[in-house]
Structures are given as C-alpha cells and as structure tokens.
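Q: Protein A?
A:
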Amino acid sequence: QVQLVESGGGLVQPGGSLRLSCAASGFTFSSYAMRWYRQVPGKERELVAGITAISGRPNYADSVKGRFTISRDNAKNTVYLQMNSLKPEDTAVYYCNADRPFYHYWGQGTQVTVSS
C-alpha cells in the first residue's frame, strides 16, 4: 500500500524555521521525483519545491528561493523541506507528492501557520 506521511508542521513566528518530513512506503522511492506543494483555502495548489529522482537536483518556486531547502534520503525513503525565514504568506497546508510517468501519489498534508 502506497503511503506518504507528512510531519513537522505547526505554528511558528515570522522569521522562524520548520522542517517538514515526508516518509514514503509502498513504492520504489528512489525512482520518483519528489515535490512539496502548498495550498490555502480558495486557491490552487502551488508547487513549492521539487527534487529529481536520480541526480537529486532541486528546484524552487521564486517565492521560496533562498529560504527553503528540499532534500531527500533514499536510504530512509524520506524527503525533507527545511523552511527558514518564514513569512505569514507561507501559511498553508503543505503536501508531499511523488511523481513519475503514469504514477502520482499524494500525502494527507500538514498545516504550517506563520503568525505572531
């Protein structure tokens, strides 16, 4: 059974940091590109960061470049999102996504709230 389980969300003050984790099971993790998306009510889901399957090359949305870092540990079947210098506009539900041709999996999401 395919599972993506996000963790690490919570409430943080502006300027603070959080580290999200996404633990994968039920598929060959190392063969999948991994991505983090976020969504706020009433808006479309937005791609935040991605990391390729083989080379582990990262890419980021302009809104998070220089503040967020995506990484993966294929031995632990886990992808991470280190979020620094958080802003109120980063508040959203963050979703983990696994992607390869014809196969796409989603986690249940974890809430991140940036507020003083």
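Q: Protein B?
A:
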Amino acid sequence: QVQLVESGGGLVQAGGSLRLSCRASGITFSIITMGWYRQAPGKQRELVAAIGRGANTNYADSVKGRFTISRDNGKNTVYLQMNSLNSEDTAVYYCNANRPGYPTVYWGQGTQVTVSS
C-alpha cells in the first residue's frame, strides 16, 4: 500500500521560511515523479513544483526563485524548501507521486502552511 506522509507545515511570518517533507512508502521511490501541490480556500489545487526521477524540476511561476524542490532517494523523501513566504502562499500543501506512463496518482493527506503578514 502506497503512503505519502507530509510534515513541516505551520505558521510563519511573511518573509520567513519553511521546509516541507514527504516520505513515501510502498512504492519504488527512485522511479517516480514527485510533486507538491497546494490548495488555498476557494481556489483550485495547483502545481507548485515537481521533480522527476532524473532530478529534473518544474516550478510554478509564482514560486520560481523562492521555492526549491529536492529528493533523497535513499530516504524515500521529497522536500520543498520555501523561502520569502508571503500571504499568497497560505494553503494546504499536498505531496503527490506518480510513475510516468501509469495512470495511478497518489496523494498525501496535506499539511497546512499559513503565512501571517
């Protein structure tokens, strides 16, 4: 059974930083694409960043230069380092995993990030 467990969310002041972690189990981590999505109240879930098995990365324009996604295949974990946070980054952040070419997508339970101004 595939499980994605996020951690690291919380309350931070504008301009501050947080690092989210997502540990995967039940899946061959090294061959899957990992991503972070977020959903703010009243808005659709959106892609924040993704990292492929070759460590190629993709970012939403709104976070480029502020957020960094990385992975540690030895720990089955993907990270999202978030710097220069602002109120628009307030959302529930979800970890996502999928294997390219396969239809199944896995989601974590989400972790709340709140940025106070």
